[in-house]
Write a structure and sequence with these properties.
Elements: H1 2-17, E1 26-33, E2 43-50, E3 55-60, H2 70-76, H3 89-101, E4 105-108, H4 111-120, H5 126-131, E5 133-136, H6 137-145, E6 148-149, E7 154-155, H7 160-166, H8 181-198
Parallel strand pairs: 1-4, 4-5
Antiparallel strand pairs: 1-2, 2-3, 6-7
Amino acid sequence: MPYQELIWKLTEKTKELYPKKEYPQTIVIDTETTGLDPFRDELLQVSIIDEDGNVLFDSYFKPLKHKEWSKAESVNHISPKMVADAPYINEKAAELYAILSQAHWIIGYNVDFDLRFLMGSDIITDEEYNAFRTEDVMIQFAEIYGEYSVYHEDYKWQKLTTAAAYYDYDWNVKGIEAHNSLADCFATLFVYHKILSEE
């Protein structure tokens, strides 16, 4: 606990001292993690692009607590070896916060998942999380795809790869495989633009 508190204090201080820079008000975000629990699992990668596809942030992270994450690794292909020399999340907290604090509109695929992990990592506060205006492409696409769940009384959520395939997205355009957070940002933006063009 004392170690965690020290990290939190250092994170807050770096946020205050980070050089002022202007960032876009509309961003697309995606993350890769060690699991599904935003307060027990950790971020392994965070990527942010603007609405024109320019990369604002992209970094792997070395977890503070987890040494392995085999179940998540089978999906995101991020191994402990890949992040062994990566920075800890608190080392990039100020840069991440600078981007997020200026964002008025956040687009993502299951964007609530990504933002909860950022909140769990002390990048954003509870109040900031609740204040964001978000666009969840996953929920938008679920209705378009039209697979209805009687149990949930709503349209079933689909994977990003399903949405990308629906609109013939070519993952090779950016040379990055699916489930890399930067690749998923580009795919999310593509699907989002397709949905907008059909409205």
